[in-house]
Amino acid sequence: MLSFLQRLLPKSWRSDAITIPVIRLHGTIMAGGGQLRQSLSLASTAGLIEKAFSFKDSPAIAISINSPGGSPVQSRLIYKRIRDLAVEKDKRVYMFVEDVAASGGYMIAIAGDEIIADPSSIVGSIGVVSASFGFPELLRKIGVERRVYTAGVNKATLDPFQEEKPEDIERLKALQLEVHDTFIDMVKERRGAKLSDDPDLFTGLFWTGKRGLALGLVDALGDMRGFLRARHGDKVRLKLVSPQRGLFGRRLGFLGIGSPDASELASAAANGVADAAGARALWARYGL
Predict the structure, then answer these.
(1) I want to staple 283 with a disulfide (CB 3.0 to 4.6 A). Which of 6, 97, 262, 288 is the partner?
(2) Cα–Cα distance between 7 and 212 in angstroms, integer?
(3) Cα–Cα distance for residue pair 54/5, rounded to 1 Å
(4) What distance in Å separates the CA atoms of residue 94 and residue 268, rounded to the nearest whole number?
(5) For 226-271, what is each residue's pLDDT tens digit?
(6) Domain ranges of the chain
(7) Fold classification of 15-126+192-257+274-284 (topology level)
(8) Whole-angstrom Cα distance, residue 63 to residue 66?
(9) Cα–Cα distance between 13 and 34 in angstroms, integer?
């Protein structure tokens, strides 16, 4: 509306400031990111992304990314939604790394036409990891017998209460290699000739933003405001796009509805400890 009214004004009265919408994608990446935990999924971010790209007069959008990774599927879905809209709306995407854009976080980051990081940011970790615990000895010590009945010889693969089987580990590693190959192909497609030939690039190692620049993982070092002022002039305006809020100030879900009810609160409480522990482990890998 403001844009329309401004076009009605005499040219000498119009503002020549460029508005760049800004969204923040912060948290671990997991399916069904709930309202009681800070996490990223396509469902929890699609509304923000769509809203940012709806600014018709903006030549670009800026995205602040701060994530240690998580679900490769949700990471790729978020990446694809950003790229699809960038092409559809013909807008440039600037991706700004804060503390960390690693693993799935870096997969989202490569959706940017340019990636800008702080010199001390953590970037990379282009790999795939699965982790769990095994408890067969504990069960024996406390006198508990594990009983599993399946239809299908591989239905109880990698049960944490049973001994590991070499064939199960081999099958898991094969799956990981396929996901890793997809990740590598995405990075090569988006970063192309910018990438160095460092043999450790796709081994899962991670680096500072400063080293990431030398490796071709990022395009520049700096901060959002400074970079956008240098690129679009001193009059550039940053417009933070936030989740929609309801009548009483509660953040609404992707469809504009869905404040948590009693059953959701109970479910979140039951799963909260495990989710928090998993998220804490992801951040801890990068010293955060």
Answers:
(1) 288
(2) 43
(3) 17
(4) 34
(5) 999 999 999 999 999 987 665 444 454 444 334 445 554 455 455 5
(6) 15-126+192-257+274-284
(7) 2-enoyl-CoA Hydratase; Chain A, domain 1 (3.90.226)
(8) 10
(9) 46
Tokens matching residue 96: 């700004």
The sign of the CA dihedral 202, 204, 208, 209 is positive
* C-alpha distance from residue 270 to each of 44, 71, 196, 281 (Å): 21, 21, 46, 19
For β-strands 60-67 and 237-240, DSSP reports them as unpaired
**DSSP H/E element including 118:** none
Six token digits for residue 157: 């693969």
Tell me the three state secondary structure of residue 274.
helix
Phi, psi of 220 (to 5 degrees): -160, 160
Q: Are 212 and 124 in contact (CB under 8 A)?
A: yes
- State the amino acid at position 185 in one-letter form: D
Quick one: pLDDT at residue 36?
47
184 half-sphere exposure, CB direction, 13 A CA radius:
14
Return the minimum-mean-pLDDT range out of 95-99, 109-113, 143-147, 214-218. Answer: 143-147
C-alpha separations of 104 from 1, 25, 51, 69, 253 in Å: 37, 12, 23, 4, 23
DSSP 201: T
Specify the residue for token string 């936030």: 242
d(CA 223, CA 62): 11
Q: Which two tokens stand for residue 89?
A: 């709306």
Task: Name the pTM for this structure.
Answer: 0.80
